[in-house]
């Protein structure tokens, strides 16, 4: 049930246990970040990452609950064998909740990373349990300023909340002209004059790719290509029916839709785009948006917490009301009619990423939190 990956110095002193309820080779934005952090900084502490091994996550509530509980017990058994530790929960998950309620028996400090949805609502019982977990945490990582404010309003001490922006890997950069041509050719786009508008993210209602499809259908041009890249299955939020609906609506509108199942290296997909549109209804701090900005792509996003924190300056991105397809179409049309300004937006966005979203900045913040937890526990 448990697969552990341990990175350590020759003489490890303190151990940081990371609860990751997915397989090591599965992709999730939070997992990509925490694993990259460990790889870069494993010489500072002894890191133990506890993964869930492959299993069929049956939708029946009892079987799913038992699976989660078994994984949590496996994590607990690994934790009790170690002394002088702290625990990081990089994402809220039911097993994380189970483990967090056991940690006080060991007087073990822990950090919770909040991505937005955990404190904004949901099932009443689940929300109450999350609240308890968060309030008992020794440190909480918020991804944006709105979530930080919500945590303080919830009762979390301000000195225990740290706002850490998601870092962007240095491999994300604007493409060369050859890389751009090859990326578009791989999608079957032979003309450089056809506008390519797209997004990367799980196909689901929360990401609102359907709003993007319908907005593109409102444009004056008849030749745009729409690219939707993201998983349609494999975890609870992915929705194959929603992906099919996007395809059907695009067909009805006569749009050229490229539906790409998610790939680990998304750079070629980003490099093919002229405009990146994230029409989500809720976000923590979206990696795909940051990566698109790093690639110098003019971006449009919903005016919601998380996206607003990133596109707060109108010089490097456009914000539109969430769910407003007409305003979204107008923003896309603006970029298409003002190509020089669009390129300026893209260049400014790439510069912002270089200045404010580098891995070293996030690493320093995480390490300071971990150091503080061990100091408190001693």
What can you see in these coordinates?
The model has no long low-confidence stretch (mean pLDDT 88). The protein folds into two domains: 2-167 and 358-377, Rossmann fold (3-Layer(aba) Sandwich); 177-356, Glycogen Phosphorylase B (Rossmann fold). It is α/β, with parallel strands linked by helices and 378 residues long. The radius of gyration is 21 Å and the shape is globular. It starts with a strand and ends with a helix. Helix 1 (29-41) links the parallel strand 2 and strand 3. Helix 2 (61-80) crosses helix 3 and helix 10 crosses helix 13. The chain has a seven-stranded mixed sheet, with helices on both faces. Strands 10-9-8-11-12-13 form a six-stranded parallel sheet, sandwiched between helices. It has helices at residues 29-41, 61-80, 94-102, 124-136, 145-154, 177-186, 209-217, 240-252, 267-271, 287-294, 307-310, 325-337, 339-356, 359-377, and strands at residues 2-7, 15-20, 46-52, 85-89, 110-114, 139-142, 161-163, 196-200, 225-229, 256-260, 275-278, 299-302, 318-320. The longest helix is centred in the first third of the chain and has 20 residues, at 61-80.
């Amino acid at each position: 049930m448990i697969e552990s990956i341990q990175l350590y110095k020759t003489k490890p002193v303190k151990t940081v246990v990371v609860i990751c309820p997915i397989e090591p080779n599965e992709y999730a934005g939070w997992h990509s970040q925490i694993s990259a952090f460990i790889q870069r900084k494993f010489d500072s502490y002894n890191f133990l990452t506890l993964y869930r091994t492959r299993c069929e996550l049956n939708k029946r509530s009892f079987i799913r609950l038992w699976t989660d509980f078994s994984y949590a017990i496996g994590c607990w058994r690994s934790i009790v064998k170690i002394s002088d530790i702290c625990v990081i929960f990089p994402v809220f998950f039911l097993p994380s909740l189970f483990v967090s309620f056991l940690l006080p028996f060991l007087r073990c400090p822990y950090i919770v990373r909040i991505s937005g949805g955990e404190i904004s609502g949901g099932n009443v019982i689940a929300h109450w349990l999350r609240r308890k977990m968060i309030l008992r945490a020794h440190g909480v990582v918020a991804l944006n300023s709105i979530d930080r404010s919500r945590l303080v309003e919830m009762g979390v001490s301000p000195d225990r909340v740290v706002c850490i922006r998601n870092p962007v890997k240095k491999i994300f950069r604007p493409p060369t002209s050859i890389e751009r041509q090859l990326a578009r050719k791989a999608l079957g786009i032979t003309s450089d004059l056809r506008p390519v508008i797209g997004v990367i993210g799980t196909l689901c209602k929360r990401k609102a790719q359907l709003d993007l499809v319908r907005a593109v259908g409102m444009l004056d041009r008849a030749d745009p290509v729409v690219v939707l890249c993201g998983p349609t299955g494999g975890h609870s939020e992915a929705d194959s029916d929603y992906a099919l609906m996007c395809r059907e609506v695009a067909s009805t509108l006569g749009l050229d839709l490229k539906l790409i199942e998610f790939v680990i290296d998304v750079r070629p997909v980003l490099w093919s785009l002229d405009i990146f549109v994230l029409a989500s209804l809720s976000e923590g701090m979206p990696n795909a948006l940051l990566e698109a900005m790093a690639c110098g792509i003019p971006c449009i996003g919903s005016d919601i917490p998380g996206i607003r924190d990133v596109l707060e300056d109108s010089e490097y991105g456009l914000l539109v009301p969430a769910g407003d397809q007409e305003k979204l179409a107008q923003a896309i049309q603006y970029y298409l009619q003002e190509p020089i300004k669009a390129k300026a937006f893209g260049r400014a966005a790439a510069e912002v990423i270089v200045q404010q979203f580098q891995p070293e900045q996030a690493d320093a913040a995480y390490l300071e939190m971990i150091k503080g937890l061990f100091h408190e526990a001693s």
